[in-house]
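The records we work with from here on pair a chain with its fold. Taken together, the tokens spell out the fold as the letters spell out the chain. To see the layout at work, look at the sequence and tokens printed below.
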Amino acid sequence: MGDWNLLGGILEEVHSHSTIVGKIWLTILFIFRMLVLGVAAEDVWDDEQLAFACNTKQPGCNNICYNDAFPISLIRFWVLQIIFVSSPSLVYMGHGFYRLRAFGKERQRQKSHLSAHMENPGLELEEQQRIDRELRRLEEQKRIHKFPLKGCLLRTYILHILIRSVLEVGFMIGQYILYGFQMHPFYKCTQPPCPNAVDCFVSRPTEKTIFMLFMHTIAAISVP
């Protein structure tokens, strides 16, 4: 679970510079995907290869049929999905950090300029109040450690959402092509060196089907 904590800590930084939609996506990613995958799904697939049995004693047949039935373990597939889908957010976070530093320097420059202007003895009361409000606004921005989502940062944010959506849909299609929406309890294998066609049996097919549908549903919800 240490790797999940690392990824979670990184994505939490994205959370502070996201819109409401982005924050909802992060909540879905953390609670309904990473937590479920790390705590529950791994146990369901723990005996995946050991419990995969074929009605033959031909040496090598079990391994060949398992490889044919499961080109990639769904657990590893989902881990790759989370990593790839999260990657655009990491790029956005890097851009956000850069813009945050630039915005901080600009804010400090504005504050110095306003403070110097405030010391002008001939300044009218209305202008003093305006400058005072502007100084309070700059201080508030500094306190909450946040800056407006606009300009090039907004474009980066929109681009990272589009790329993330394409990756999400791509993995959903990939999972459907590999396994469909159901894990069948048995698999008929005709791969050599198996003698003729042999029947192989999958462990916990119902539980695995439930998790497959669950991950499909969460992936669909995560697409903006």
